[in-house]
Amino acid sequence: MDWQKKVSLWWAKNFRPLVVALLVGCGVHYTIYANQLGTMDAVHIGALYIADGWPEHLYWETEQGRWALRLVDMLRGGINQPALSALLMLFLYALAGVLLTDLFGVCSRTAKYLIPLTLVCAPYVAEIEFFHYCSVSYALSFLLAVLAVQSAVCGVRFAWLAGTVCMAFSLGMYQANLGTAAGLCVMLLILAVLRRPGAWKATGLRMVLMGGSGAVLYMLILKVFLRLYDVGLSGVNGINAVGLDTLRSLPLGLKNAYFDFYAYFFTHGIAQNHYGQIAGYLLLFVLAALAGLRWLVVLHGRKAAAAAVVLVALLSAAANVTDVINTGATVALRMAGSLAIVVPFAIAVIDAAPALTERAFSWGMALCTAFCAVLLRGFAVQVNNDAAVMLKQKTTVVNLANRLCTRLEENADYQNGAEVVILGEPKRGAYPEESPLKPMAGELAQFGPLSFDPTFNAHGWYVLVWDELGVQLNECADETVRAISNSDAFKAMPNYPADGCIQTIDGVVTLKVADFPF
Fold it and tell me: Collapsing DSSP states into helix, strand and coil, what is residue 341?
């Protein structure tokens, strides 16, 4: 019964921060899941999908190293409903945030609420939510990375072996969460140096054992699935080349890691920090640095200070370890979550500094709360800015699709059951108007729900017309779509709504919305 008592005590202690983070997250993200907003990939996948089951390219996820996605999809039956996916995703992130408060050993009640809140409301979580067909898997990957690190520091003998399994399955869902685990390990080592100078080496050894064995187990399982499916690793984002030239390209990888750390927090190049986030980050990090310096001066000597400085310098490389390993891909940075735990770590440092814990609510924690309020306000506005842009794009496409179907139903070949293809993006045709919020939106939100690639563009139209209007078009093969889009007849057609925008090409009723840029 001892474990039941521990679980009950943990739940009683963390229930309120968990529920508050979940409820606030549901409010911040409401526009996204209520309007079923998603990226081009999410639109293309549709409402029912199980990983490795894409007819056009079987085992696509495993070829990218994500063999565990199929297992999670099978558990949820492949149902891709944005509201349910969002609730599960936000719960997993809120739970991970609560676990971070335990790992960081925060004492302040305020910090116990701020840490899960700053995680759940982070704009990168919204970016994951836009991929609602895999958002739950990516959130679970993040949670498993946190649990893997927790196993290495809990002090129970051989508990790091359980962390090995957690790490392997975390990487099997999304390899970029290696940065989450590595960054969190460095953060905990910094706290260990400051709190218990003699104990951090043993903790570090267990972390290395957990991380190394987890990576090996992940690779072994990946090899089994690749052989079972008789496929190889994909060349997308250079995943098939990881490990071959890592040492030779290490300087470039480290440069990318430190630059991306800076760019994520203090520019608009990666995260769109248009609503005061940069000021909030700067103020919070300066306060955390002052708290850390105060901690070193009061408690420790030169060796502890030197170790702490070295670990702080390594934090950027650890959090962006995917940059170091694979210099050709930085897209994973947006979805890994490794940088989202930097803010919780800063809160933990401020909370634990000696001069700031003499009273229940010190001036340091008061400033920390104020700076986090600036960040949370920026997070909420940024998420809804991106959602507003995507909602405008989706509304334009769906309203246009309704009119396109009306025109199609007047076509004799369509009435006789001919195959149909709709090609083009409204913004490149007769409907270029876009939301004034678009310049402040993230890259994913700016891209829109339809691809500029003819094959993906056509399938996106098929899915939108079916999911949004309940009209099932007679879809033609990808090869036919590509041949039509490259034909002189299609290029000579006028864009909708001009006369002649619907023509039959090679037996396929073709409706042209716009030309393709390439």
Answer: helix
Amino acid at 81: Q
Cis peptide before 354 (omega within 30 of 0): no
* Residue in 505, 465, 499, 503 with CA at minimum distance from that of residue 482: 505
For residue 244, the tally of other CB atoms under 10 A from its CB is: 10
Q: What is the Cα–Cα distance from 169 to 215, expressed in whole angstroms?
A: 10
Query: 356: pLDDT confidence band, cut at 50, 70 and 90?
Result: very low
Neighbours of 310 (CB within 10 A): 12
Is 417 within 8 Å of 474 (Cβ atoms)? yes
12: buried, middle or exposed (CB in 10 Å: 19+, 13-18, 0-12)? exposed
pLDDT of residue 187: 95
Pairing between strand 508-512 and 419-423? Answer: parallel
- Per-residue pLDDT band at 333 (split at 50, 70, 90): low
Beta carbons within 10 angstroms of residue 497's beta carbon: 14
Which 8-state DSSP code applies to residue 495? P
Average pLDDT taken over every residue of the chain? 88
Lowest mean pLDDT among 42-46, 101-105, 380-384, 499-503: 42-46
- Please provide the DSSP assignment of 343-398 as one string: HHHHHHHHHHSGGGSSSSS-HHHHHHHHHHHHHHHHHHHHHHHHHHHHHHHHHHHH
One-character DSSP codes across 106-165: ---HHHHHHHHHHHHT-HHHHHHHTSTTTHHHHHHHHHHHHHHHHHHHS--TTTHHHHHH
Q: How far apart (Å, rounded) are the C-alpha atoms in residues 403 and 231?
A: 43
CB atoms within 10 A of CB 314: 15
Strand ordering across the sheet containing 419-423: 419-423, 508-512, 502-505
Closest CA to 333 of 282, 262, 280: 262
Q: Which residue has the higher pLDDT, 244 or 289?
A: 289
DSSP annotation of 36 reads T
Lowest-pLDDT range of 136-140, 170-174, 203-207, 454-458: 203-207
